[in-house]
Amino acid sequence: MTNADSGRGTASVTMRDVAKAAGVSVATVSHVVNDKPGARIGDDARKRVQDAVEALHYRPNALAKTLSQGSSRFIGLVADAIATTPFAGQIIHGAQDEAWKHGYVLLVANTDGNAAAENDAIAMMLEHQVRGILYSTWYHREIEVPPALANTDTVLVDCFADGSGLPSVVPDEELGGRTATRELVDAGHRRIAFINTTTPSPAQSGRLAGYLAALDEAGIDRDDALVLSAAPDQEGGYASLDAVLASGATAVFCHNDRVAMGLYDGLRERGLRIPDDIAVVGFDNQDIIAAHLRPPLSTVELPHYELGAAGVRLLLGIDTRPASLVSRVACPPVRRHSI
Questions:
Q1: DSSP secondary-structure letter at 25?
Q2: Cβ within 8 Å of residue 43, ≥6 positions away
Q3: Alpha-carbon dihedral of residues 259, 264, 270, 271, nearest 10 degrees?
Q4: 153: which of 22, 132, 170, 336 fits an S-S bond (Cβ 3.0–4.6 Å)?
Q5: DSSP SS3 for 333
Q6: How far apart are CA 89 and CA 67, in angstroms?
Q7: What is the CA radius of gyration of the chain?
Q8: What is the distance between the alpha carbons of residues 284 and 228, in angstroms, rounded to a whole number?
């Protein structure tokens, strides 16, 4: 190899390249290169890393030299799509604000659900010796944890992985369902329909459980005819109108704001007024919908900003991890004029 070739190699080689050549994780390379005290690395693995460093002419870059032993003032956030969704990007905002408050910078990677991009993002963050990683999805669901996250402290945000041992921060779907239904009960309604989604999810089961619990608390008899199923979109809400009217409901709790928007369309076509003829409450507080319907929609907010902030606090040990490893964040009511 010529000196020129060597120079190009030095400039372009990363810890990930070294890890691949040595057959170890990026975290192991980081521990060897930075001579991290207390790191448990076998002699054979250490030698393979050192040999790969020499063969590839790897040199830590200027950033790596500024990092403390084994950690930095960075926190990583790996997301599948939240940076491009209309309201869930608040997770990033909340995490960023909370990170700054405690002297950290947030490194964000939006992977669009691409596994290769996800692995690259995690490897890059490990190379930068992040304090830990928030792993987030754009809607509340169970996930399979990427194996690379085993190399650093991780908190799951708006998702969970049973049996993984990882802490998670998720919206309290059941409490949100109770809150939405109580808003209608407190307005004097006794015959309240619930349009739930057809898609299995924590939101589907949790919001239904909350709806039923609120009826029980108010001494209102449950009625299966009032629990309807629809696609979780505007068309689903519109298609539910006949069933809602047939049920004799005076108020409707919709699974989300898009369903409520469709129901608005159907009620308007029938010449029915909200809330005079029928009251409506949604879920999500998707501002581009809820605040701009006529009348503006009363709803329950998905607390995306607080999910991001709470994730950072949990990662830094500021908030105590619950024994169940699941931290549930309340979904507050947003009162407008549809009740």
A1: -
A2: none
A3: 170
A4: 132
A5: strand
A6: 29
A7: 25
A8: 19
Residue 328, both tokens: 């549930």
Phi, psi of 194 (to 5 degrees): -125, 115
34 is written with which tokens? Answer: 């930075």
Domains of the chain: 3-66 (1.10.260.40), 74-171+305-330 (3.40.50.2300), 173-300 (3.40.50.2300)
Tokens of 262: 């469709």
- Token pair recorded at residue 223: 């009625």
Q: Quote the tokens at residue 195.
A: 């349009």
**CA triplet 227, 263, 180: central angle to 5 degrees?**
55
Is residue 182 within 8 Å of 213, Cβ to Cβ? no
CA 74 from centre of chain: 19
On whether the CB atoms of residues 125 and 76 are closer than 8 A, the answer is yes
Tell me the β-bridge partners of 74.
Answer: 105
Say if CB 329 and CB 90 are below 8 A apart: no
